[in-house]
Prior knowledge:
It is a single chain. The chain is an alpha/beta fold and about 625 residues long. Helix content is about 35%, strand content about 20%. It is built from 25 helices and 24 strands. Strands 16-15-14-17-18-19-20 form a 7-stranded parallel sheet, with helices on both faces. Helix 24 runs antiparallel to helix 25 (about 615-625). Bound molecules: 1,4-dihydronicotinamide adenine dinucleotide and 2-oxo-3-(phosphonooxy)propanoic acid. 2-oxo-3-(phosphonooxy)propanoic acid binds near residues 285, 308, 309 and 520. 2-oxo-3-(phosphonooxy)propanoic acid binds near residues 286, 287, 309 and 310. It catalyses: (R)-2-hydroxyglutarate + NAD(+) = 2-oxoglutarate + NADH + H(+); (2R)-3-phosphoglycerate + NAD(+) = 3-phosphooxypyruvate + NADH + H(+). Catalyzes the reversible oxidation of 3-phospho-D-glycerate to 3-phosphonooxypyruvate, the first step of the phosphorylated L-serine biosynthesis pathway. Also catalyzes the reversible oxidation of 2-hydroxyglutarate to 2-oxoglutarate. InterPro entries: ACT-like_dom_sf, ACT_dom, AHAS_small-like_ACT, D-iso_2-hydroxyacid_DH_PdxB, D-isomer_2_OHA_DH_cat_dom, D-isomer_DH_CS, D-isomer_DH_NAD-bd, HAD-like_sf. Its EC number is 1.1.1.399, 1.1.1.95.
Amino acid sequence: MLTNTLEQTYYVIDFDSTFTQVEGLDELANIALAGNPNREKVVQQIRELTETAMNGDMSFAEGLRRRIELLQANRSHIDVLIDFLRTKISDSFLRNQAFLHDYADSILILSSGFKEFIVPIVTELGIKEENVYANTFRFDAEDNIIGVDNDNVLSSDKGKVKLLQSLNLEGEVCVIGDGYTDYELRESGLASRFYAFTENVEREKVTKVADHIVPSLDEFLFLNNLPRSQSYPKSRIKILLLENVHPVAREAFEGEGFNVEFVKGALDEDELIEKIKDVTILGIRSKTMVTRRVLENAPRLIAIGAFCIGTNQIDLKTATEKGIAVFNAPYSNTRSVVELAVGEMIMLIRNVFPKSVGMHAGKWDKSANNSFEVRGKKLGLVGYGHIGTQLSVIGEALGMEVYFYDVVDKMPIGNAKKLRSLDELLQVADVLSLHIDGRKDNKNVIGKREFGLMKDGVVFLNLARGHVVDVEALVEALKSGKVSGAGLDVFPYEPKTNNEAFESELRGLPNVILTPHIGGSTEEAQEGIGHYVPERLLEYVNNGSTTGSVNVPEVQLPLLKGSHRLLHVHRNVPGILAKLNNIFARYNVNITGQYLKTNDQIGYVIMDVERSYVDGFVQEIKDMEETIKFRMLY
Ligand SMILES: NC(=O)C1=CN([C@@H]2O[C@H](COP(=O)(O)OP(=O)(O)OC[C@H]3O[C@@H](n4cnc5c(N)ncnc54)[C@H](O)[C@@H]3O)[C@@H](O)[C@H]2O)C=CC1
Ligand SMILES: O=C(O)C(=O)COP(=O)(O)O
């Protein structure tokens, strides 16, 4: 029995597609009809009836009667269903079991589904069996389901309203559900608020009439200031993913309840400025330019994930100044770039592409002229980082002599020879491949003078960044025969989407392989990046760790247990820690852990404190003039 007091608030929660991700009856049909050739058709009919009834477009009783008729299930199928439903409990309900448990006296499950499968599921999460209001099946002597208990008002039209009426609750009633019948409780005046729950399904007819739309139980608990597992609901945190990053990235964020917007192409500066206003995490690849203007219009942005290697498209200095942590995937597509470079190098030195083009036009040109092996040739690598060193290993395995030049002193791998200047390298290489990063200073590293220093007939590869080569000089070198073949994957201007044409003087030149910036575009690389970058971003958002950040000092933090964690990014000036400690001392706050790392622009201090403190303490930290970004986790 429910104890009614005047101040009491009741939380009436729907089961199907709210408490669980699925509709129980649809799934029961799916199980019961396993092996039946008409299974898909019948399940589909049942789903349509469920949807029609949920939208309020058919009388509920009629829909239920027709669904039971189609079902052909028995008691053993229900046991299978229960096991299945255990794996389909909505994520935000699983996260907030403490609330379900602690507020069990005030929580009612009100469902037009069936107690036989609802009770075992909800009671495991702390709900009281006596607070579950649902239909029950009728069985025959062989345990086949033959109907429903028609005496239960829930089996009739407006059943939920009738049932709630009969409970005669005194106090406030809020309803959480995904269906129109849940809204009818509010419409009838029996409930004072209706929260359309959209974690699993979103029905326009329902959200349109709701007092609030809650994408998760966390959001409901936040709005009502109730105890919850997330200090700030993740459904309120917007993540913008651009440039068609791998779907596993989207799943990683959505699985944790974040609000994700996914865009296939890149955005230009103005489009991004428009979109980024309420974005907390931005995911991009190499194309999206994150300029100072963009960052100045991103008040909520705390992190950027570059789902690639290069970060030259991001204004890192401004990002750091604003305490925005940038992460990338430093080696997830290294191998893919190297394989493409190896393939192109062999194709170019053998003159394969012109022969192939000729063959397509019917020209049989069997000759060895201008076709060479790579074995014994000198491979020159400009930039000896992750990609350069990998290519060094494979080049040697192909029998090439490897030479490299890097602005930083790098250890040669295998028999590779380090050269002291770019000029020296240009003069020895038979095949020259660029693997430098896209920093501004690298603009036109290879221009007219550099082509002039190269051997006649050199094979030239650029899979690094378009602006590092002067294209006009390259075209001239190709036309004059100085460069006998070139493989180009990157260009000073690259189309924003696949719908834009590629314009370049390089088009139509023989023995030039042009590829649309696909060095890192393999299934393997993209999936690897799709896992790696969200892991770094989630660690930062959930725990404060900055492992792998390219601009914020790296700190690997222990998991947060029992304390509140304050994350403070500040301008790196002397005396910050003393100032902070002074505030702690004045407010008598007990610190359970403290970490500090700095770089030349900013400092990142993390303080774990005991939960009991007064709010003024937090405000004082926020108000410090050196504070750039401040957030709290608990
Ligand atoms: N085509 C594509 O799809 C891809 C292109 N890339 C590009 O390749 C670049 C290199 O990638 P990683 O090897 O992973 O980077 P990395 O950072 O490991 O290596 C870059 C190396 O170049 C050196 N360097 C920079 N400027 C130089 C210069 N002017 N002369 C000589 N050495 C110089 C650096 O000291 C460093 O050792 C990335 O920054 C990115 O721009 C990366 C992945 C895919
Ligand atoms: O990883 C990089 O730096 C690349 O250039 C690959 O970029 P993408 O992911 O293809 O836009």
